Amino acid sequence: MQSIEVKTERPYKVKIGRELIPRIGELSAEIHSPCTVLIISDKNTAGFYMKEVLESFERSKFSILQYLFEPGENSKNMKELTNLLDFMAQNAMGRSDMIAALGGGVTGDLAGFAAAIFQRGIAYIQIPTTILAAVDSSVGGKTAVNLPAGKNLAGAFWQPELVVCDCHTFRTLAREELSAGAAECVKYAMLRSPELLFSLTESGLNSDWEDIIGQCVSYKAQIVSRDEYEQGLRMILNFGHTIGHAVERLSGYRIRHGEGIAVGMSIITRAAEKKGICESGTSQKLEAALKAFNLPTSSCYSAEQLADAALYDKKRRGDKITLVLPIKVGNCLSKDIYIQDLGEWIELGMGDRLCR
Q1: Structure confidence at residue 44 as a pLDDT band (50, 70, 90)
Q2: Residues 33, 160, 101, 265: what is their CA dihedral angle, to the nearest 10 degrees?
Q3: Is 311:319 a contact under the CB 8 Å cutoff?
Q4: Nearest of 266, 273, 165 to residue 214 by alpha carbon
């Protein structure tokens, strides 16, 4: 089992391994006295793991509540958040109690935001069951729900007490979900490691996920430890996200997060190459890695549609928006551009439009 420390204001460990779900109660008891723990999960994930998680917490003397919701991005909204908070209040949860987020990114974001604002903050742990959640949303303390105007527009920074990633849970994921999670791993490779990009391209879905997640989480932990509240350096982790979130929004969230990010990375890399910012051939290397996971590299939406949707992105600052641009594989930078120029950047990187 790997144990990676995230050195934030309230430090915590990310534990990565196999057969960790049966030990979740024991691992939680090491960092939090037995209390009432609310296990939050979508109905699909609960069918796979809830029984094991319940039994583990019971063995470690925790009292248990459960809250289940419908799976999918469309549940990550203010109505579901309000229902969850009401459930917590009606069950007399207090500031000494704890939330356990069991599932993917939607679960982690919803549960984390509830933990951040219930009684001005209670403890929570993350138990990611997808690759996407393991390398992205479960680490770093960014919690949020979507608003009709855009993705993750209401949220808070609230670090977990512990993250436990049991890589055995990936066996239950559909190939499309595995691929969507791999998009974030490709992102980390573009940010820091040509070797990781080569490995992902060569191995595809047969990659050693335990090792890859460890590499990605180690890098993210370094960034988050230096910029917990995303004031500068941490924005580099948004590579592909400005356009990717626009793709998601325009699709009504039918397009998965990882698929949107794959499109966003591809568009901005092609644009950076054409502007002479990025080393020639970088977009081909990126697209080869994405295609190894059958991920899209283009979108059916127009540059105008994508630019308009991106205006609601939280990385906008007045008349400017921050883009993360690759210089070459393993090296990216953040650049502020004027909103009025965003459409030109997108148009430059569009490639062949393709609806999926």
Answers
A1: very high
A2: -160
A3: no
A4: 165
Spatial contact of 37 and 69, defined as CB atoms under 8 Å apart: no
3-state secondary structure string across the chain: CEEEEECCCCCEEEEEECCCHHHHHHHHHCCCCCCEEEEEEEHHHHHHHHHHHHHHHHHCCCEEEEEEECCCHHHCEHHHHHHHHHHHHHCCCCCCCEEEEEECHHHHHHHHHHHHHHHHCCEEEEEECCHHHHHHHCCCCEEEEEECCEEEEEEEECCCCEEEEEHHHHHHCCHHHHHHHHHHHHHHHHHHCHHHHHHHHHHHHHCCHHHHHHHHHHHHHHHHHHCCCCCCHHHHHHCCHHHHHHHHHHCCCCCCHHHHHHHHHHHHHHHHHHCCCCCCCHHHHHHHHHHCCCCCCCCCCCHHHHHHHHCCCCCEECCEEEEEEEEECCEEEEEEEEHHHHHHHHHHCCCCCCCC
- In the chain, the domains with their CATH numbers are 2-172 (3.40.50.1970), 175-348 (1.20.1090.10)
Residues with active-site annotation: 120, 142, 184, 220, 230, 234, 238, 241, 245, 257
Model confidence pLDDT, tens digit, residues 90-123: 999 999 999 999 999 999 999 999 999 999 999 9
Both tokens of 13, joined, read 């460990």
pLDDT tens-digit series, residues 185-210: 999 999 999 999 999 999 999 999 99
